[in-house]
Design a protein that fits this description.
The protein is built from 13 helices and two strands. It has helices at about 5-30, 40-60, 60-85, 90-115, 140-145, 150-165, 170-180, 180-185, 190-215, 230-240, 245-265, 270-275, 280-290; strands at about 130, 145. The protein has a two-stranded antiparallel ribbon with strand order 1-2.
Length: about 300
Amino acid sequence: MDWTFLSNLILAGVRMATPLIFLALAELYSQRAGLVHIGLEGLASIGSLVGFLVSLITGSPLLGMAAGAAAGILVNMIYAYATITLCAEQIVYGMAINIFAPALAAFIYRVYFGAGSELVQVALMETVAIPGLKDIPFLGPLLFDQTPMVYLAYALVIFTAIYFNKTKSGLNFKAVGEHPKAAATLGINVIGVRYAASVICGALAGMGGAYLTTCYTTTYVDGNVAGRGFIALAAVIFGRWSAGGVLLACLFFGFCDALQIRLQVGSFGVPYQFFQMIPYLATVVVLGIIGMRKAGPKASGKPYRREER
Protein backbone atom coordinates (compact mmCIF):
# COMPACT_ATOMS: atom_id res chain seq x y z
CA MET A 1 0.00 0.00 0.00
CA ASP A 2 1.52 3.31 -1.12
CA TRP A 3 0.40 6.92 -1.44
CA THR A 4 -0.93 6.37 -4.98
CA PHE A 5 -3.05 3.46 -3.81
CA LEU A 6 -4.41 5.48 -0.90
CA SER A 7 -5.22 8.56 -2.98
CA ASN A 8 -6.98 6.46 -5.63
CA LEU A 9 -8.90 4.68 -2.89
CA ILE A 10 -10.11 7.95 -1.37
CA LEU A 11 -11.01 9.32 -4.83
CA ALA A 12 -13.04 6.17 -5.55
CA GLY A 13 -14.66 6.46 -2.14
CA VAL A 14 -15.88 9.98 -2.93
CA ARG A 15 -17.41 8.82 -6.20
CA MET A 16 -19.07 5.81 -4.61
CA ALA A 17 -20.42 7.95 -1.76
CA THR A 18 -22.29 10.21 -4.18
CA PRO A 19 -25.32 7.95 -4.83
CA LEU A 20 -25.45 7.28 -1.08
CA ILE A 21 -25.60 11.04 -0.44
CA PHE A 22 -28.58 11.43 -2.78
CA LEU A 23 -30.36 8.47 -1.19
CA ALA A 24 -29.57 9.50 2.38
CA LEU A 25 -30.76 13.07 1.78
CA ALA A 26 -33.96 11.61 0.32
CA GLU A 27 -34.52 9.68 3.55
CA LEU A 28 -33.56 12.70 5.66
CA TYR A 29 -36.23 14.90 4.06
CA SER A 30 -38.78 12.11 4.37
CA GLN A 31 -38.09 11.42 8.03
CA ARG A 32 -37.94 15.10 8.95
CA ALA A 33 -41.56 15.26 7.79
CA GLY A 34 -42.48 12.18 9.82
CA LEU A 35 -42.30 9.56 7.04
CA VAL A 36 -40.04 6.57 7.56
CA HIS A 37 -39.30 5.36 4.03
CA ILE A 38 -37.56 2.01 3.70
CA GLY A 39 -38.35 1.89 -0.03
CA LEU A 40 -35.24 3.76 -1.17
CA GLU A 41 -33.91 0.61 -2.84
CA GLY A 42 -36.95 0.42 -5.08
CA LEU A 43 -36.95 4.13 -5.94
CA ALA A 44 -33.27 3.95 -6.85
CA SER A 45 -33.90 0.87 -9.02
CA ILE A 46 -36.55 2.54 -11.16
CA GLY A 47 -34.47 5.73 -11.32
CA SER A 48 -31.48 3.70 -12.47
CA LEU A 49 -33.40 2.03 -15.31
CA VAL A 50 -35.21 5.15 -16.52
CA GLY A 51 -32.02 7.21 -16.34
CA PHE A 52 -30.23 4.58 -18.40
CA LEU A 53 -32.95 4.41 -21.06
CA VAL A 54 -33.27 8.18 -21.46
CA SER A 55 -29.50 8.59 -21.58
CA LEU A 56 -29.33 5.87 -24.25
CA ILE A 57 -32.13 7.37 -26.36
CA THR A 58 -31.14 11.04 -26.10
CA GLY A 59 -27.38 10.66 -25.66
CA SER A 60 -27.56 13.04 -22.70
CA PRO A 61 -26.67 11.77 -19.20
CA LEU A 62 -28.08 15.01 -17.75
CA LEU A 63 -31.49 14.24 -19.25
CA GLY A 64 -31.08 10.72 -17.90
CA MET A 65 -30.59 12.10 -14.39
CA ALA A 66 -33.66 14.34 -14.76
CA ALA A 67 -35.74 11.43 -16.01
CA GLY A 68 -34.56 9.26 -13.13
CA ALA A 69 -35.72 11.94 -10.70
CA ALA A 70 -39.12 12.13 -12.41
CA ALA A 71 -39.50 8.34 -12.28
CA GLY A 72 -38.66 8.35 -8.58
CA ILE A 73 -41.32 10.99 -7.93
CA LEU A 74 -44.01 9.10 -9.85
CA VAL A 75 -43.39 5.81 -8.06
CA ASN A 76 -43.11 7.51 -4.68
CA MET A 77 -46.54 9.06 -5.11
CA ILE A 78 -47.95 5.57 -4.57
CA TYR A 79 -46.27 5.49 -1.18
CA ALA A 80 -47.30 9.08 -0.44
CA TYR A 81 -50.97 8.56 -1.22
CA ALA A 82 -51.15 5.36 0.81
CA THR A 83 -49.31 6.65 3.87
CA ILE A 84 -50.40 10.31 3.94
CA THR A 85 -53.93 10.30 2.57
CA LEU A 86 -54.97 6.77 3.57
CA CYS A 87 -52.81 6.72 6.75
CA ALA A 88 -51.52 3.24 5.90
CA GLU A 89 -48.54 1.61 7.60
CA GLN A 90 -45.37 3.27 6.33
CA ILE A 91 -43.04 0.29 6.75
CA VAL A 92 -45.40 -2.01 4.85
CA TYR A 93 -45.72 0.32 1.88
CA GLY A 94 -42.02 1.07 1.90
CA MET A 95 -41.34 -2.64 1.55
CA ALA A 96 -44.01 -2.81 -1.17
CA ILE A 97 -42.07 -0.17 -3.14
CA ASN A 98 -38.93 -2.29 -2.72
CA ILE A 99 -40.75 -5.24 -4.28
CA PHE A 100 -42.72 -3.41 -6.95
CA ALA A 101 -40.20 -0.92 -8.37
CA PRO A 102 -37.27 -3.31 -9.11
CA ALA A 103 -39.72 -5.76 -10.71
CA LEU A 104 -41.15 -2.95 -12.83
CA ALA A 105 -37.65 -1.88 -13.87
CA ALA A 106 -36.74 -5.45 -14.87
CA PHE A 107 -39.99 -5.78 -16.83
CA ILE A 108 -39.44 -2.53 -18.74
CA TYR A 109 -35.86 -3.50 -19.56
CA ARG A 110 -36.92 -6.87 -20.98
CA VAL A 111 -39.78 -5.37 -22.96
CA TYR A 112 -37.47 -2.75 -24.49
CA PHE A 113 -34.42 -4.91 -25.19
CA GLY A 114 -35.86 -8.42 -25.28
CA ALA A 115 -34.94 -11.43 -23.21
CA GLY A 116 -31.36 -12.66 -23.47
CA SER A 117 -30.11 -9.55 -25.24
CA GLU A 118 -26.52 -8.39 -24.93
CA LEU A 119 -25.66 -5.69 -22.45
CA VAL A 120 -26.13 -2.24 -23.97
CA GLN A 121 -23.74 0.50 -22.94
CA VAL A 122 -24.11 4.27 -22.78
CA ALA A 123 -21.61 7.10 -22.53
CA LEU A 124 -20.98 8.31 -19.00
CA MET A 125 -21.27 11.91 -17.86
CA GLU A 126 -17.96 13.71 -18.30
CA THR A 127 -16.11 15.29 -15.43
CA VAL A 128 -15.95 19.08 -15.15
CA ALA A 129 -12.66 20.32 -13.76
CA ILE A 130 -12.52 23.70 -12.03
CA PRO A 131 -9.53 25.59 -13.48
CA GLY A 132 -6.78 26.30 -10.98
CA LEU A 133 -8.41 24.42 -8.12
CA LYS A 134 -8.06 21.05 -9.84
CA ASP A 135 -4.27 21.40 -9.71
CA ILE A 136 -4.13 21.53 -5.92
CA PRO A 137 -2.16 18.47 -4.76
CA PHE A 138 -4.41 15.64 -3.56
CA LEU A 139 -7.47 17.84 -2.89
CA GLY A 140 -7.69 19.05 -6.49
CA PRO A 141 -8.69 15.75 -8.14
CA LEU A 142 -10.67 14.81 -5.05
CA LEU A 143 -12.92 17.88 -4.89
CA PHE A 144 -12.57 19.86 -8.10
CA ASP A 145 -12.35 17.32 -10.95
CA GLN A 146 -15.67 15.48 -10.69
CA THR A 147 -18.92 15.09 -12.59
CA PRO A 148 -21.57 17.80 -12.08
CA MET A 149 -23.60 15.32 -10.01
CA VAL A 150 -20.85 15.12 -7.39
CA TYR A 151 -20.84 18.91 -7.09
CA LEU A 152 -24.64 18.88 -6.90
CA ALA A 153 -24.63 16.28 -4.12
CA TYR A 154 -22.35 18.38 -1.93
CA ALA A 155 -24.26 21.55 -2.75
CA LEU A 156 -27.45 19.83 -1.63
CA VAL A 157 -25.81 18.90 1.68
CA ILE A 158 -24.92 22.56 2.30
CA PHE A 159 -28.38 23.74 1.23
CA THR A 160 -30.08 21.15 3.47
CA ALA A 161 -28.03 22.16 6.50
CA ILE A 162 -28.92 25.84 6.00
CA TYR A 163 -32.55 25.11 5.18
CA PHE A 164 -33.29 23.01 8.25
CA ASN A 165 -31.37 25.17 10.72
CA LYS A 166 -31.55 28.75 9.46
CA THR A 167 -34.88 29.22 7.69
CA LYS A 168 -38.44 29.50 8.94
CA SER A 169 -39.66 27.12 6.26
CA GLY A 170 -37.11 24.51 7.32
CA LEU A 171 -38.06 24.83 10.98
CA ASN A 172 -41.73 24.39 10.02
CA PHE A 173 -40.72 21.34 8.01
CA LYS A 174 -39.00 19.81 11.05
CA ALA A 175 -41.96 20.68 13.27
CA VAL A 176 -44.15 18.43 11.13
CA GLY A 177 -41.85 15.52 11.90
CA GLU A 178 -41.64 16.30 15.59
CA HIS A 179 -45.24 17.17 16.51
CA PRO A 180 -47.63 17.46 13.54
CA LYS A 181 -50.70 18.32 15.63
CA ALA A 182 -48.92 21.23 17.29
CA ALA A 183 -47.61 22.32 13.88
CA ALA A 184 -51.16 22.28 12.51
CA THR A 185 -52.35 24.59 15.28
CA LEU A 186 -49.74 27.11 14.12
CA GLY A 187 -51.20 27.11 10.62
CA ILE A 188 -48.67 24.72 9.04
CA ASN A 189 -50.14 22.51 6.33
CA VAL A 190 -48.99 19.12 7.61
CA ILE A 191 -50.41 17.16 4.66
CA GLY A 192 -48.84 19.56 2.19
CA VAL A 193 -45.43 19.37 3.86
CA ARG A 194 -45.52 15.58 3.86
CA TYR A 195 -46.43 15.46 0.17
CA ALA A 196 -43.64 17.95 -0.57
CA ALA A 197 -41.25 15.72 1.38
CA SER A 198 -42.39 12.74 -0.71
CA VAL A 199 -41.70 14.64 -3.93
CA ILE A 200 -38.21 15.59 -2.71
CA CYS A 201 -37.56 12.06 -1.49
CA GLY A 202 -38.64 10.51 -4.80
CA ALA A 203 -36.56 12.96 -6.84
CA LEU A 204 -33.38 12.51 -4.82
CA ALA A 205 -33.71 8.73 -4.60
CA GLY A 206 -34.35 8.53 -8.35
CA MET A 207 -31.27 10.66 -8.98
CA GLY A 208 -29.23 8.40 -6.72
CA GLY A 209 -30.24 5.43 -8.85
CA ALA A 210 -29.75 7.27 -12.14
CA TYR A 211 -26.24 8.24 -11.04
CA LEU A 212 -25.28 4.56 -11.15
CA THR A 213 -26.08 4.25 -14.87
CA THR A 214 -25.12 7.72 -16.08
CA CYS A 215 -22.00 8.52 -14.05
CA TYR A 216 -20.72 5.29 -12.53
CA THR A 217 -21.25 2.29 -14.85
CA THR A 218 -22.01 2.23 -18.56
CA THR A 219 -24.83 -0.31 -18.46
CA TYR A 220 -27.87 -1.41 -16.50
CA VAL A 221 -28.21 -4.79 -14.80
CA ASP A 222 -30.79 -6.10 -12.35
CA GLY A 223 -29.74 -5.50 -8.78
CA ASN A 224 -27.22 -2.77 -9.60
CA VAL A 225 -28.42 -0.72 -6.60
CA ALA A 226 -27.00 -3.55 -4.46
CA GLY A 227 -28.38 -2.57 -1.08
CA ARG A 228 -27.36 1.08 -1.25
CA GLY A 229 -30.87 2.12 -0.24
CA PHE A 230 -30.56 0.30 3.07
CA ILE A 231 -27.04 1.60 3.63
CA ALA A 232 -28.36 5.15 3.05
CA LEU A 233 -31.08 4.49 5.62
CA ALA A 234 -28.36 3.50 8.08
CA ALA A 235 -26.37 6.62 7.13
CA VAL A 236 -29.25 8.84 8.25
CA ILE A 237 -29.25 7.15 11.66
CA PHE A 238 -25.45 7.21 11.82
CA GLY A 239 -25.51 10.90 10.85
CA ARG A 240 -27.99 11.73 13.63
CA TRP A 241 -30.57 13.15 11.20
CA SER A 242 -28.35 16.11 10.24
CA ALA A 243 -27.01 17.03 6.81
CA GLY A 244 -23.37 17.18 7.95
CA GLY A 245 -23.63 13.90 9.80
CA VAL A 246 -25.23 12.24 6.78
CA LEU A 247 -22.37 13.46 4.58
CA LEU A 248 -19.73 11.99 6.89
CA ALA A 249 -21.63 8.72 7.18
CA CYS A 250 -21.96 8.41 3.40
CA LEU A 251 -18.25 9.15 2.91
CA PHE A 252 -17.44 6.42 5.44
CA PHE A 253 -19.67 3.85 3.72
CA GLY A 254 -18.42 4.96 0.30
CA PHE A 255 -14.85 4.41 1.47
CA CYS A 256 -15.77 0.92 2.69
CA ASP A 257 -17.34 0.15 -0.70
CA ALA A 258 -14.27 1.37 -2.56
CA LEU A 259 -12.02 -0.61 -0.22
CA GLN A 260 -13.80 -3.89 -0.86
CA ILE A 261 -13.40 -3.44 -4.63
CA ARG A 262 -9.68 -2.69 -4.27
CA LEU A 263 -9.22 -5.73 -2.03
CA GLN A 264 -11.03 -7.96 -4.50
CA VAL A 265 -8.53 -7.20 -7.27
CA GLY A 266 -5.60 -7.81 -4.95
CA SER A 267 -3.96 -11.22 -4.66
CA PHE A 268 -4.73 -12.12 -1.08
CA GLY A 269 -5.88 -15.70 -1.56
CA VAL A 270 -9.23 -14.89 0.08
CA PRO A 271 -12.61 -15.52 -1.62
CA TYR A 272 -13.89 -12.25 -3.08
CA GLN A 273 -17.27 -12.74 -1.38
CA PHE A 274 -15.55 -12.05 1.93
CA PHE A 275 -14.50 -8.58 0.77
CA GLN A 276 -17.98 -7.87 -0.64
CA MET A 277 -19.33 -8.09 2.89
CA ILE A 278 -17.27 -5.12 4.13
CA PRO A 279 -19.81 -2.30 3.48
CA TYR A 280 -22.66 -4.31 4.98
CA LEU A 281 -20.65 -5.44 7.98
CA ALA A 282 -19.65 -1.81 8.56
CA THR A 283 -23.35 -0.86 8.46
CA VAL A 284 -24.28 -3.49 11.04
CA VAL A 285 -21.37 -2.57 13.34
CA VAL A 286 -22.12 1.16 13.17
CA LEU A 287 -25.82 0.67 13.91
CA GLY A 288 -24.96 -1.67 16.75
CA ILE A 289 -22.69 0.93 18.33
CA ILE A 290 -24.63 4.17 17.92
CA GLY A 291 -28.07 3.21 16.65
CA MET A 292 -29.96 3.66 19.93
CA ARG A 293 -28.16 6.64 21.45
CA LYS A 294 -30.50 9.23 20.02
CA ALA A 295 -33.97 8.90 18.57
CA GLY A 296 -34.98 10.56 15.33
CA PRO A 297 -37.97 12.84 14.76
CA LYS A 298 -40.62 11.92 17.31
CA ALA A 299 -43.48 11.60 14.82
CA SER A 300 -41.57 9.42 12.34
CA GLY A 301 -43.62 6.45 11.27
CA LYS A 302 -46.85 7.79 12.76
CA PRO A 303 -49.82 8.67 10.52
CA TYR A 304 -51.40 12.10 10.83
CA ARG A 305 -55.18 12.29 10.94
CA ARG A 306 -56.67 15.79 10.87
CA GLU A 307 -59.82 14.76 12.73
CA GLU A 308 -57.88 13.57 15.79
CA ARG A 309 -57.13 16.06 18.52
